[in-house]
Structure formats: structure tokens, C-alpha cells
């Protein structure tokens, strides 16, 4: 079983900025079983995290020349565009880690439902007796 801090993949990928010019910015990506961390190229900057519980899918994979372009779609329908060197296969690694995360969550949900169904119902509290007049 994978631990949340285990690094599955680490390396360079590029994220398209949200600015008007939509420039590609180099990031150092660190993929773990529950998130993708993106570290800016400059020193001291804080990483951004994409946690898998907030990701719907990896979409729009396109290979052109030396790059693979892909989009991560979040649960609030935000689309984040990435590109990576064709041989790096970041899109596949993220997709597989996301599927693994979703499968583990589904199994946890099933186990939780089974445990709730198997738990004995709490016994009903006895009703208080009323005093009888003789």
C-alpha cells in the first residue's frame, strides 16, 4: 500500500499561466499518492498543491513534436493546462495516481457502509415507569 508522502514521480513540467499572455512556466512537479505539488523555478517560493480529492480527471491529451499537452479538470470545473516533454509521461503518471486514489477512496466508502450495516443497532432505552395510584 502506498503512503501519502511517498514520491511516485519528480521532475520538470510546465504550467500555462492564467495571465493575459498565458505563458508557459517551468515547474518542478512532485507526484505523491494523494496530490501533485508544483514548485516554482525560483528559490524560496511556496509550492502549489493539487490534491486528488479536488481533481475530476486528466483530459485533452495531445502530442505535438517534443511536447505532450494535457489539462487537469478540478471538481469546481477549473481547467489547468500543462505540457511536458514527450518522453516524461507526466500525463500518464498523474492519471494512474488519480485512478489509484479514486479506487482507494471507493473501497474506503464501501467498507464504511458495510461496517455501518453490520453494526448492531443500539438497544432502545427502557421507557420510564409511571407511578401508579393504588
UniProtKB/TrEMBL annotation:
The protein's name in its UniProt record: Pleckstrin homology-like domain family A member 2
Coiled coil segments of this chain: none
Classification via InterPro entries: PH-like_dom_sf, PH_domain, PHLA1/2/3
Gene Ontology, cellular component aspect: cytoplasm; membrane
Domain (PH): residue spans on this chain: 7-101
Compartment list: Cytoplasm; Membrane
Main location: cytoplasm
One GO MF term: phosphatidylinositol phosphate binding
Keyword terms: Cytoplasm, Membrane
Function of the molecule: Plays a role in regulating placenta growth. May act via its PH domain that competes with other PH domain-containing proteins, thereby preventing their binding to membrane lipids.
Lyase among keywords: no
Protein's organism: Myotis myotis
Family: Belongs to the PHLDA2 family.
CDD domains named among the record's database cross-references: PH
Membrane topology, record value: Peripheral membrane protein
One BP annotation, GO: positive regulation of apoptotic process
Amino acid at each position: 500500500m502506498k503512503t501519502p508522502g511517498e514520491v511516485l514521480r519528480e521532475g520538470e513540467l510546465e504550467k500555462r499561466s492564467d495571465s493575459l499572455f498565458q505563458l508557459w512556466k517551468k515547474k518542478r512537479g512532485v507526484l505523491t499518492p494523494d496530490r501533485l505539488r508544483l514548485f516554482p523555478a525560483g528559490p524560496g517560493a511556496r509550492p502549489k498543491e493539487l490534491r486528488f480529492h479536488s481533481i475530476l480527471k486528466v483530459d485533452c491529451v495531445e502530442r505535438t513534436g517534443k511536447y505532450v499537452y494535457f489539462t487537469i479538470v478540478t471538481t469546481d470545473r477549473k481547467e489547468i493546462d500543462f505540457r511536458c516533454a514527450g518522453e516524461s509521461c507526466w500525463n500518464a503518471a498523474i492519471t494512474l495516481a488519480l485512478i489509484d486514489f479514486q479506487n482507494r477512496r471507493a473501497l474506503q466508502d464501501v467498507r464504511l457502509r458495510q461496517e455501518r450495516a453490520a453494526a448492531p443497532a443500539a438497544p432502545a432505552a427502557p421507557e420510564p415507569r409511571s407511578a401508579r395510584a393504588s
